[in-house]
Design brief:
With 757 residues, this protein is mostly helical. It has helices at residues 3-8, 14-37, 41-51, 55-67, 72-82, 84-98, 105-111, 114-146, 152-178, 184-205, 224-231, 234-265, 269-297, 299-309, 312-318, 327-357, 363-391, 408-425, 436-441, 448-460, 464-476, 483-490, 495-508, 512-522, 527-540, 545-552, 558-570, 577-586, 590-602, 609-618, 622-636, 639-649, 653-670, 676-690, 694-708, 717-731, 736-748; strands at residues 397-399, 402-404.
């Protein structure tokens, strides 16, 4: 419990926090409607434009809203003593009531003129901004207290989605009410609806837990000394500077893009308002994903990726076609991307502030400084934006593919300033071990869209069969986004889910976390899964896999030993050759003999040719014979050709061997290695085998192999050819693997540069 909570007597329990989450969401939704219809967004900008204010006046007025955030520095301590919840409720009630002053604008404009109306709007906006600043000075420390950190990203995302849906509905309704060329009447309707929503938001916020007064004066962290200590926190200062630079870029764009759309692109007023719908669609579509990613991989990588993507929208605005039929649709598409990117930035930076940057026991001074600093940056952004648009009002022309107008400078700032902000924010301490590069890489490896879909299906699985199917899909995506779920599936109480998890991990591909999880399974006490884990490690080749497989050779389970041996061969661990050769000479278990043969064949241990030929000779089962024959073929080389010939020999062996004998004869002649007797023997064997006379053909082929296996033939081909000739003469075509292996050894003995293959 933080010192603030102890001073207050008791902070809210986790149960109370969870119970308050729906009320917090209701507050966020109703407050969004209030903000959309009163002092924020396109509606208010178009309202001021309709009243007759110029761009500089609009920018200055909008700057008042964030500017009053500076009062947070001076009132943080008394607000904490009075109680964050109490101060928030009073301030936001006053804030909502002040919005009623906007309803007097038509009367003032008709009776007292433009100057009096401007004065009224300034008073309304200023008083509203002050009340809002006091309320948010209380809200930020209170919000840190009312939401569990472990689910802050998801909660923020859900609130963002629902709030944006409400905002979308409000924007669509606003566009319909305003029409293409509105007067002040429709704005009065919207403001009235906004006031009602504002009162509803105050009522719902009263249901939220926490925010009790701090009675112990020593526990109030809001004094000048506390502010100074917070200002000396280098990580906090870097964060504030980065946020300020990005805010300077984003705030003017949000305010003046609607006017750009009307004046330069040629959209109507209601179409410009409807562009907010695109932003909200992007936010709704991506909000939960961003929040989930922030909770899972950390706030900083989400924030930084969002910052890197922020310039996309300004670049697109610069290249917008003017007065074209597709302009509205392109603008909506750009707005969707803008909403997606802004949501990632806002969720990441906000969560980082609450979870990592601000110590909970010092939230009052930190949050006061943050709110004041953000207010100053926002105010400067509004003033700068309005001033720049007015200053460049006469700009026209063309620069390459960019059309110049009064808003061009704003867009260039929107492109460049986030890049400077990135340089500052890179130095901020992260809240996870995942770097921005690693995080961004998750979206270019595998299939991220399929991964997100598979995560949903996995989480929604209701029985074992569905869970197994979901686990299979997790591996098939080959995306880093599914790593945690795959590891989770390894610890599922259901055996076949764990079994499928190992298979899915092998299918997924290399990842250090997955490799570590498989090593734990390998070294566990469940031999069926340990065996499978040994196989999977042989496919992944991750860090630590070889060492774990070496340790697995000492397992008390022979099946585990066998698969560790096979995987070490697959991974090319030649340091194990002496041990494998030693075990091959003494091993009596057929399963382990087959595993050792496979590993030695993969490792190209030609010194094992003799023992492997002996095992093939003594083998009593077809499976073991083929395993030993394959291992020997690997020592000879060109494994794939051995497998292809073995497959062909399964259906029409005579034809397959005849073709191979003829091809070998031609190859030897071209390589100038065929004596007349050898060429004749191969030709005779080919003719007999073509008639499917395997008995006679095998004898002729054995004679040809004896002639070929002279002393000048390189090992191990010579030893293999001789052994195969002897066994074919003794057994005939009964052991077909000798025919395949003999031809294969003979074929591989001819240099590859002979010109035939």
């Amino acid at each position: 419990m933080s010192s603030r909570e102890m001073a207050a007597g008791q902070g809210p329990t986790t149960v109370e926090k969870l119970r308050g989450l729906p009320w917090g969401t209701a507050w966020s939704v109703s407050n969004t409607v209030f903000a959309t219809y009163t002092f924020f967004g396109s509606v208010f900008v178009l309202f001021l434009n309709t009243v007759g204010l110029d761009k500089a006046q609009i920018g200055t007025l909008l700057s008042l809203l964030p500017f009053f955030g500076v009062v947070a520095v001076f009132i943080a301590a008394p607000v904490a003593r009075a109680g964050h919840k109490r101060v928030f409720l009073i301030s936001f009630t006053i804030r909502t009531a002040l919005a009623l002053l906007l309803l007097l604008v038509p009367t003032f404009l008709s009776r007292f003129g433009a100057q009096a109306t401007l004065a009224l709007i300034v008073v309304a906006v200023g008083a509203f901004g002050l009340a809002r600043a006091v309320g948010f000075t209380a809200y930020y420390p209170w919000s840190q207290e009312m939401i569990p950190d472990g689910m802050r990203g998801k909660v923020s995302a859900i609130r963002s989605i629902l709030s944006n849906l409400a905002g979308m509905a409000a924007v669509l309704a606003a566009g319909w009410i305003l029409g293409p060329d509105p007067d002040l009447g429709p704005f009065m309707v919207l403001i009235s609806i906004g006031v009602v929503s504002g009162l509803l938001s105050v009522w719902t916020s009263g249901k939220l837990p926490g925010g009790a007064p701090v009675k112990d004066a020593h526990a109030v962290h809001g004094s000048a000394r506390d502010m100074l200590l917070a200002a000396r926190d280098r990580g906090f200062v870097r964060y504030l500077l980065g946020i300020a630079v990005v805010t300077l870029a984003m705030v003017p764009l949000g305010s003046f893009v609607p006017l750009f759309m009307i004046e330069q692109v040629g959209l109507s007023a209601n179409q410009a308002v409807w562009l907010d719908t695109g932003v909200l669609i992007g936010a709704v579509a991506s909000g939960y994903v961003w929040g989930w990613l922030a909770d899972r991989y950390g706030s900083k990588p989400v924030m930084m990726l969002g910052a890197y993507l922020l310039p996309l929208a300004p670049v697109a605005w610069l290249l917008m076609p003017r007065g074209a039929a597709v302009s509205l649709y392109l603008a909506l598409g750009i707005a969707v991307v803008q909403g997606l990117v802004n949501t990632g930035w806002n969720l990441g930076s906000g969560r980082l502030l609450f979870v990592e940057i601000v110590p909970p026991e010092k939230s009052s001074p930190y949050m006061a400084l943050y709110y004041a600093w953000a207010g100053i940056a926002g105010a400067l952004g509004q003033v700068l934006g309005g001033w720049l648009v007015d200053l460049t009002s006469g700009v026209t022309g063309q620069w390459g593919i960019v059309r110049l107008d009064p808003y061009t400078v704003l867009f260039f700032l929107g492109i460049t300033l986030p890049l400077f902000g990135i340089l500052l924010l890179r130095a901020v301490a992260p809240d996870s071990l995942v770097t921005t590069r690693q995080f961004a890489g998750m979206f270019v490896r595998g299939n991220p869209l399929a991964a997100l879909g598979s995560l949903v299906r996995y989480r929604r699985a209701r029985d074992e069969r569905q869970t197994i199917a979901g686990t299979e899909r997790l591996g098939s995506t080959r995306s880093p986004l599914t790593v945690e779920e795959l590891i989770e599936a390894l610890h599922d109480p259901r055996f076949y889910v764990r079994f499928e998890a190992v298979v899915a991990i092998a299918r997924h591909g290399e990842d250090p976390h997955l490799t570590g999880a498989l090593i734990e399974v390998l070294e566990g006490n469940e031999p069926s899964l340990s065996t499978l884990a040994a196989w999977a490690l042989g496919r992944l080749d991750g860090e630590g896999a070889v060492e774990a497989l070496r340790r697995g050779l000492e397992s008390r389970y022979r099946s585990v030993q066998a698969h560790c041996i096979r995987s070490l061969g697959s991974l090319g661990d030649r340091t194990m050759l002496p041990l494998l050769l030693e075990r091959l000479a003494t091993e009596e278990d057929v399963g382990l003999q087959m595993a050792l043969a496979s590993a030695l064949g993969r490792l190209g241990a030609t010194e094992a040719a003799g023992p492997l030929l002996a095992l093939l000779r003594a083998s009593g089962t077809q499976d073991a014979r083929l395993e030993f024959a394959l291992a020997i073929a690997r020592l000879v080389g060109q494994e794939h050709r051995f497998v292809q010939l073995l497959r062909r020999a399964g259906s029409e062996p005579g034809t397959a061997f005849s073709q191979e004998a003829s091809a070998l004869r031609t190859k030897l002649i071209r390589a100038r290695q065929a004596m007349p007797e050898l060429a004749g023997a191969l030709d005779a064997a080919a003719q007999v085998l073509a008639r499917e006379d395997l008995e006679q053909g095998a004898g002729l082929l054995a004679a040809a192999l004896r002639q070929l296996a002279g002393d000048d033939l390189a090992l191990p081909c010579r030893a293999v050819a001789r052994e195969c000739a002897e066994q074919i003469e003794r057994l005939g075509p009964q052991r077909i693997e000798y025919l395949v292996l003999g031809i294969h050894a003979a074929d591989c003995s001819v240099p590859e540069d002979s010109g035939l293959f």
